[in-house]
Each structure stands twice: as C-alpha cells, then as structure tokens.
Write a structure and sequence with these properties.
Blueprint (H helix, E strand, L loop, with lengths): L1 H8 L10 H33 L3 H13 L2 H19 L3 H6 L1 H24 L3 H9 L4 H31 L12 H10 L2 H29 L2 H10 L7
Helix pairs in contact: 1-10, 2-6, 2-8, 3-6, 4-6, 6-8, 7-8, 8-10, 9-10
Amino acid sequence: MEQVIAFFADPANWSGETGIPNRLVEHLQIAFLAVLTAAAIALPLGFYIGHTGRLQLLGINIANIGRAIPSYALMVMLLPVMLGLAPVLGYDPRLGLRFFPIFLAMVLLAIPPILVSAYAGLQGVDRELIGSSRGMGLTERQILTDVELPLALPVLVGGFRVALLQVIATATIGAFLAGGGLGRYIIDGIARRDDGMLYAGVLIVAILAVGTDLILSWLQRVLTPKGVRVATDADTPAPAIT
C-alpha cells in the first residue's frame, strides 16, 4: 500500500506521455472508438432482426463467434497482418503495431453485447402495441423510431454498458503489443518488478470500470419508462425477515 501511495504522490506520474492523465485518455480513446465502431456495425443488424424477426440465427451465431474468440489471440493474429498492410495502405507502421490490432480486437469484443441488446430490446416490445401502431397507419420506420426504440432504450443502454466494461477491462492487455493506455502500468510494473506501479494500474482500471458502470447503470434506470420501473419494483420480492 505504501508503494501505491508513493506512486500516486510522485508528481512525475501526473505529467508527460507516461503520466496518469495521458494514459487515461489513451485508454478511453481506444475504448470509446471501439464501442462506437461496434455500434455502427451491430445496431443496424440488431434493429433489422428485432423489428422483422428475420436472421435471428445469424445474429446468434455472430454473437457466439465474437464471444468465443480470445481477444489477446486475436490481437496477436492481427499484428502481422496490420504491419504487412502498412506499406500497402500507406499508414504509419506504428499504428499497425500499437493501435489497429488492439482496436479491431476490441471492436469484435464489443459487437456481441450491442447486437444482442438491440434485437432483444426490440423483440421485447409488446406485439399488440406494434399491431396497434400499424392499425393507426404508422409506417414501419415510424414504428421502429417512435414506438420500439424508446421502449427498448434501457435494454440498449444495458448492452452498451456490458460492451464498454468488457472493452475497458480487456484493453489493458493491449500493452503486451506495445500499446498505450492504463495497461502500460500493469505490464511495465511486472517487467520492472515495481509493485507500486503494478497495483496502482490495477486500481485505476478498477476505479474506471466501476465508475463507468455506475454512470451507465444510472442512465439505464433514467431511460427506463416510469411505468416499467414501477412494475419491475413491484415484482421484486421483499427481503425475507429472519
């Protein structure tokens, strides 16, 4: 504990490229970019499956494949490919080493929870309500945007919550590939046998994950329609009195 306190108390750890603020920004950049890219891929497919009821088997298979692939193994497999494509596509080879393998692995990690929450949220909307909307003359697009999405929003936020937490936690192993972010403290702490740096890195990642979870949990509850919250709370059994 004294070593951890000394790490946080050292001004050198709060400035420069290796400082906590910069490492935190690097970590959040890769996490949010990966989740946003995954959302751009998963949401359209999830909305289509949830709204039409088609291609459910495809959605389930995509989700299962994404969950089955180990992220670190995927990073290692992508590394030579990204380095090899650097002279062909004209990007900096350092991106093929430090960014693209980690980024693509995190995108594939984030797709399954977002995809599943998208089509599960839409399919959870009362079918009678959908039928009534069609009877009122609403188009399929209006039904999706004005009826299904508002009611499915809490489930969607839950999917983003799972995806972002998984990416925040897993992105730390990107430091094995010379990546930045908070994982550098863990990897460098192990390499240097610096317990203060190691456990400080673990603590920062844990605080970031817990803080993110609390914020998204609050947002998920806020976006849940009041009637649904009341019904859910009423269905929750009271704790047994012993």
